[in-house]
Amino acid sequence: MDIGPFLLAFCLFPLHVSADSTCKLKAKFNLSGYKNVEKKKVVIGGMFPVHMRVSSSGGNTSRLPVSSGCEGFNLRTFRWTRTMLFAIDEINKREDLLPDTDLGYVIYDSCFTISKAVEGTLTYLTGQDEAVPNYRCGNGPPLAALVGAGGSDLSIATARILGLYHFPQVSYCSTCSALKSKFQFPTFLRTIPNDQHQSTAMAKLVIHFGWTWVGTISADDDYGKYGIKDFKEQVEEAGVCISFSETLPKVNSPENIQRIIQTLVKSTAKIIVVFSSDVDLSPLVTELLRHNITNRTWIASEAWVTSALMLKPGASLLLGGTLGFAVKRASIPGLQRYLLDLDPYGDTLSEEFWETMFNCTLNYGKALRNTRPRTSGSNSTDRSLPDGLCTGLETVAQLKNTYSDVSQLRITYSVYKAVYAVAHALHNLEHCEQGRGPFNGRDCTNISSFEPWQLMYYLKNVRYTVPHTGEEIYFDDGDVEGFYDIINWQFNSDGEISYVKVGHFNATAAPEEQMTIMNGSIVWNSDALEPPRSVCSDNCQPGTRKGIRQGEPVCCFDCIPCADGEISNTTNARECILCGEDDWSNEAHDVCVPKIIEFLAFGEPLGITLIVISAFGALITIAVGVVFIVNVGTPLVEANDAVLSLSLLFSLVVTFLCSIVFLGEPQNWSCMTSQVALALGFALCLSCIMRNPGKAVVLMHRAQALKAARARSKAAAKAAKVAAQDAANVGSPDVIVTNTNNNNDLGVSVNPEVDILTCAHQRALTAVATLIQAVACTVWLILLPPHAIKNTSAQNIKIILECDEGSIIFICCVFAYDILLALIAFIFAFMARKLEDHFSEGKCMTFGMLVFFIVWISFVPAYLSTRGKFMVAVQIFAILASSFGLLTCIFLPKCYILLIKPERNKEDMMRPRTKPRDGTSTGTSASLATAATEVGTAVASSAIDD
User: Which residues contact 609 (CB under 8 A, 6 or more apart)?
Assistant: First the structure.
């Protein structure tokens, strides 16, 4: 209710009245309170919400408006009212504070309603029981200041009015942060901290316990709205989410209360922050108890944290473990005695208090009307006091209630400080030294006739020490320091509550030192030792990251495991961290660990096995070479050229031993050595294999030529024989038929001494073929040599140390050349397999080359399907298998003859076998020479016979 514009209109257009004018009263206010202005020098105003609400009116417009009455007597606020009276009485008795001035008072009940607060303010300003804006019609002592008016909404309404006249107002419980604005409320001061500090304290409390999912409830007034607004801004900035935000109705509304109940039931939030007065919250607590809603932890604002209005039957199950913020607590000596020393007939408020406390009435007529006379017997007419009538002799001390409980004097202490602030300001005004004052060139003012704005100057600059507590009070732009005690509601087995201090908050300290909490002293609602958890989603542990749920608050998320190679080492990580190139995530994905370095080591079982096999192959090959050297000069060794055979054996030793170089941690030198040795070893080996079947091919062609010559000679002999028979039949003389030309031709064509592919040619061919490979490898090593690398992409968790070929083109060319030699050797060996010697070397070489190709063809898919050290193992197995295949197929038959069957190592065993039925014959060069001689003799004999 903003009445500022209306009052401003009154100020701009004042009512000009005179003694002869007729004033028409619009309405008469119905205010209750305390008033003592007679023979007083200065009057202090006060306003307290002694009642909780105004009485409902019928809204009848057919009669004169009547100010509403109040209902719902509040014991707590009545104690505040009596405290102001006690403070004024204490000040009047002091000799050091306002010794020459008696303070009077005018105290009204605001009924916790804005309209009543405005009524009281206007009445206080005008000095009459009705309001005459812009005029003071009373003739009493000057008004000093207003202490009040209770809640923030009430103080906002009164401060707007008082601010128009620069009339000082000192509040004891109006904490709304909006009242800080001196532009809107220039004369407002308070002895209770600004809610901005409390909102910060609540936010820090929520963050301290790690609660990220909270609900909020606020009163439908400026106190609740501004307090929750500041709280939300601070916690949301820290990543806390608001599950729900509800508003308590100012007027009791069962529908709205039920809606809030349903929201609480549905929400998973276990922490509920309430910014409200005890009056506004009380209906909700009653309904919560009826629905038996427990397992919630409540965060209380200072307006209800120590209020007994919440302590209903069963409240321990609902509100046990509540944490809240309370203003400073103090002990005020003599106050309890003053509170208990109450005259029930002194004023209307005291009378109502008495009747409320003892559930009786002080009005005899009312009691008589409500009860029937008691009789002692059926025929007795003796009358006694009516039931329900108070005697006035009841003892307040025998009742344990909020009014007489002085163990938690917090707001009460704030009232005490507010009265003393006004008193000290008046004292400073009264004792101003003329010529050193603050007004009009250092003037002072008279305490009997000062203006409100003059007292405002002294109030803003007052600095005093509170009696009995020693606390120093001063106003910083109208506010006091933000200091709160953190209170924990602890119930015993009998349901009695204790407000236990478990920490404090000091807004003036450094940010990291503002809040101190003794976690071990807190008793939680669930009787657990650990704080309750209130989260929309459980914390994402290290190894996972937060995944946003679309359309939900940021506190509601899914925990997504980090991908391989990524980690998160903090709780609730928003992103996973990619591990370095040489690192990988562990199984939990919370630490980057070095990747496993893999290579085929010498010492592991597989490496040892390959070394043993390689060494065994090399030793066997050397042993075969020794056998050949021992048997040099024998027909079998001579027929196969001992030099080239030993060269072949040497190349096999190289291939066996080069496989060992593939083992161990790759180095640049080992990469170059292994690849080049393998390429040259196979080039030499295949070149040596290629020369023997090559020579056999030449001999095969000779055998075919010999066969053709035999056929021609037979045909010529047959023709001569036929001709001789024909001549004999006709009686012709003897004719000697000769065929010199044919004989010469035959001798030339099949001359066994003419050997086109000599041993020198074979050795030269082998050397040239190997030299070509050596040149290619040299160029490779110079331009783009193989080198060791770390392969981090083949396997995620491993770093594979391997050899990089340097150039795909070079390695393809080098080993393509070896494949070309192998193909040529295989073709020659295959063509030479039909030589009809007793020892057919061509067949052995054919089988050896078949084994070679089978091994390397099988190697390709096996090599491509493996990774890491097993690729090296597959390569070594291929080298060893092909080397063993060549060694076995080529040299095992020879060693068998040399060692087991030496009797077959003779020249005649190298000659041709029995001629086949078709007359064809193939064989070695020696056998071919013998065959040619026989052909020539046969031709000559045929000619002579004929």
Answer: none
**Beta strand pairing status for 463-465 and 323-326?**
unpaired
Give the 3-state DSSP-derived string for 3-54, with helices as H, strands as E and coil as C: CHHHHHHHHHCCCCCCCCCCCCCCCCCCCCEEEECCCCCEEEEEEECCEEEE
* CA pair distance 31, 385, nearest whole angstrom: 32
- Tokens at residue 611, please? 């070394």
b/e code 824-860 from CB counts within 10 Å (16+ = b)? bbbbbbbbbbebbbebbbbbbbbbbbebbbebbeebe
Q: How many domains does the chain have?
A: 4
Per-residue tokens: 848: 């050896």
Please tell me the distance from the alpha carbon of residue 41 to that of residue 426, in angstroms, as a whole number: 11
> How much is the pTM?
0.66
DSSP one-letter code for 464: E
Q: Is residue 734 part of a domain?
A: no
257 alpha carbon, distance to own chain's centre: 38
Cβ proximity of 227 and 198 under 8 Å = yes
pLDDT digits (tens, 9 = 90+) for 308-367: 888 888 888 899 999 999 999 999 999 999 999 999 988 899 999 999 999 898 888 877
Distance CA 364, CA 383 (A): 14
How far is it, in rounded angstroms, from Cα 732 to Cα 724? 9
64 contacts 27 by C-beta, under 8 angstroms = yes
d(CA 228, CA 245): 9
Find the domain containing 468 and state its range: 33-54+70-192+334-367+394-474
The predicted-structure confidence for 425-483, as pLDDT tens digits, reads as follows 999 999 999 888 999 888 999 999 999 999 999 999 999 999 999 999 999 999 999 99
Could you tell me whether strands 188-190 and 169-171 are parallel, antiparallel, or unpaired per DSSP bridges?
Answer: parallel
In 596-730, the DSSP E strands lie at: 596-598
Q: Are residues 668 and 778 in the same domain?
A: yes
Residue 800: φ, ψ to 5°: -95, 120
Same domain assignment for residues 88 and 179 = yes
Cα dihedral 871/873/876/878 (nearest 10): -70
Tokens representing 561 are 């495991």
For residue 821, which of 770, 882, 864 has the smallest C-alpha distance?
770
